[in-house]
Prior knowledge:
- With 193 residues, chain A is α+β, with helices and mostly antiparallel strands.
- Chain A has helices at residues 18-27, 62-66, 92-96, 132-138, 150-154, 165-179, 186-192; strands spanning 4-8, 37-41, 49-53, 72-74, 80-82, 160-164.
- Helices cover 28% and strands 13% of the residues of chain A.
- Chain B has 300 residues and is an alpha+beta fold.
- Chain B is built from seven helices and 13 strands.
Amino acid sequence: MAQMKFYCDAERCIECNACVTACKNEHEIPWGVNRRRVVTIKDGEQGERSLSVACMHCADAPCATVCPVDCFYTTGDGIVLHDKDICIGCGYCFYACPFGAPQFPEQAAFASRGKMDKCTFCAGGPEEDHSSNEYKKYGRNRLSEGKLPLCAEMCSTHALLAGDADVLSDIYRKRVINRGASAFEWGVNQLKS
Amino acid sequence: MNHPGTPNLYDTSKHVKDGGLTFRARFGVERNGVNLLAEGSFGRGSEIKDGYPEFSDKVLKKLGWWNDLTPEEQGAAEGRNWKTDLSGGIQRVAIKHGCSPFGNAKARAMVWTFPDPVPIHREPLYTSRRDLVAKYPTYEDRKSFWRLPTRYQSIQAIDFSKDYPIILTSGRLVEYEGGGDESRSNRWLAELQQEMFVEIHPRDANNAGIKDGDDVWVEGAEAAKVKVKAMVTRRVDSGVAFMPFHFGGHFQGKDLREKYPEGADPYVLGEAANTAFTYGYDSVTQMQESKCSLCRITKA
């Protein structure tokens, strides 16, 4: 079985936010909820780096560990999904997640939390594949159509990769060899070129 | 022909049919007695081992390649060149012989129809470097430039830098396009950039008592002001401020949303960078100067 993963190559990400926009458009995500976002560190300084971050579909997902109603499950492809019919919107998963992936649409009265929403790796949810319920709650199910997540498909510099972990690490290994040095030795690369 | 496209211009290491090309012979074959065609440089596989003019029926006949055209192509190509021969035959035959249909000339960086045939530095009209004005002066004022009187030197002669010490430039954000009305009306994009802002270096911000996220007035050197949010960042150098030009709908601190026809107002409005920009036009295209001006920034 494949183990589905995201990988964002910080040498390539240009902070264009196309992944964010593609995601919001594909799944009709409301204003204020961001399943994916681009984080920039050292903005405007030497060594500036951007990374596109969403749910990383952890092998041992902390959100699932802390969930009091046990709404999370991991698919055969290693994708962490959750059931919105079980979710109580408590927000524990948001505290547990190292990436800030869980999102909570604010609902009118007292800005109380709605059901948690997060990246599904474009794999829908527990509802029947391609049903209108699935689309309404979890967004498009591209994986069942043999397509990869749209954010990665849309990435113009191929910084954001999605797919089987073995394939991704193979692509990344080849990139590092081509660059002639570790991706983490950016300053060294600059001096060489 | 199944051409792969031409990813790099002027790449002579590849055959034209494989995506190589030469420099286009666009401006004749000689000027002031000097040959403009390439000398000793040609694409891989070229049967002409030197420069050549653009291809036409006459060139093909002279080279003895005319009969490589089919009779139908010959009928269409008679009296035509590679651009006007609708059969495509002239292009096909030129490429078959390893030649670029548009000729093979010397690459050059001289445009004799421009005021500066070779680009040189000229100080902007609104400059903070008064010491460079004498050495790199702008053009004389022009009485009629595309029929319009256009000022250059008479503006540069005035020193604005005492009152407006910070260089102001403008540019794009990846989320928006052009004036931004359409992209600010798209909720996926508008959510990503909700405020018009000015980027200020921490040193300038500190001197003006401005904190990140404060409302500030950016006053251009012609005294028009825009009220925007301050982004204190090292993206800009000390002494330089940057504003994106995708916003509109606010004017000098006033929100004009009620003036939009019902349902036509974008999600996000903001001051237009152009409000704070100043006079100045390109010496060839008359494009407005929107990259280089002066401003002063104060807390609102």
